[in-house]
Amino acid sequence: LLTINNVKKEGGFTKNKGVSYLRCIDNSMLRFKITDRTLLIANTDMSRGSIIGAPLLINPNQIEYELIYSMDLTKLNPKAGDINLEYIFYLLKDPFYRYLVKRFAQGTNVLHLNHNLMFNLLIPLPPFSEQKAIAKVLKDFDELIEVIDKQIENFERIKKGLMQELLTKGIGHKEFKDTEIGRIPKEWEVKRLWGETCEINPNYKIQRGKVYKFVPMEAVNEDFYKVKFYTEREWTGSGVKFSYGDVLLARITPSAENGKTTVIDFLNKDEYGIGSTEFIVFKPN
């Protein structure tokens, strides 16, 4: 059973979400059975517009089990043989058309796609041969991105193993000792993070009402430990203060990313910044 949980926000199939299984189906559900290449779009959204209208293209020949789709997905049937489903799929993934489709959603807490309003959506439709060529170029790029993503995943796994090795055994050590935090090289010390090595949430002297560079929680990339962006905001007394070389540690996040960290490297050494209250700031002694 395919549901909106199997649709990426940007469109396509989510590989990190499992498929729900049904032991049997009755005759009333047969109209939702997928027997050939099928283009679906999300028609229900409980996340205020991030999924609504996202397309999903399914080829049942590449899947080992029979499929039906739930009522939170809508099937788009081509009316003629000169419509390339992959072209329509990529068209609906385009941010401009995602924006247009979202405008056809209605609801307060849960959004639903108004199919009648969808009839007003106009799209550019080149000849079939060009539709096919455009879709092939975009599909080739998707396949290349998938290969690169797998390489990145492999490097991330290697990096995690290397981090564990280096942060517990170091480089070139032959003698080790047992400590309260485990076995470490004999020459190493054990110290408390707070107090002995770092100051937590330093009280830098900054001015109320003055504008500083501001880092929100979503600006910290959990994969590469970098600040992706920052804005500017007046200091009103709420939040944390940081300077060059400080470490930000996430303590509260809505998506289970507690513990993601970043080093502040975009400030001058005599410059201060401010951040969300969801951060803890570590200043090395």
Structure explained in plain terms:
The radius of gyration is 26 Å and the shape is elongated. The model has no long low-confidence stretch (mean pLDDT 87). The strands form six sheets. The chain has a four-stranded antiparallel β-sheet, with no helix packed on it. It is 22% helix and 23% strand. The longest helix has 42 residues. The chain is an alpha+beta fold and 285 residues long. The chain contains four helices and 18 strands.
Task: Give the topology, please.
Layout: E1 33-34, E2 38-42, E3 44-45, E4 55-58, E5 67-68, E6 73-76, H1 85-93, H2 95-102, E7 105-106, E8 111-113, H3 115-118, H4 128-169, E9 176-179, E10 182-185, E11 198-200, E12 211-215, E13 231-234, E14 240-243, E15 247-250, E16 261-263, E17 272-275, E18 279-284
Parallel strand pairs: 12-17
Antiparallel strand pairs: 1-5, 2-4, 2-6, 3-8, 7-8, 9-10, 11-18, 12-13, 14-17, 15-16, 15-18
Index terms:
alpha+beta, 22% helix, 4 helices, elongated, four-stranded mixed β-sheet, 285 residues, four-stranded antiparallel β-sheet
Please report the total strand number as a whole number. Answer: 18
Helix content: 10-25%
Q: What does the overall shape look like?
A: elongated
- Output the structural class: alpha+beta
Instruction: Calculate Rg over CA atoms.
Output: 26 Å
Major beta sheet summary: 4 strands, antiparallel
What is the tally of helical segments?
Answer: 4
How far apart lie the N and C ends? 55 Å
Regions with little confidence, pLDDT below 50 for 5+ residues = none
- Mean pLDDT across all amino acids: 87
Strands of the largest sheet, in order across it? 11-18-15-16
Q: What proportion of the residues form beta strands (DSSP E)?
A: 15-25%
- What is the H/E string? EEEEEEHHEEHHEEEEEEEEEE
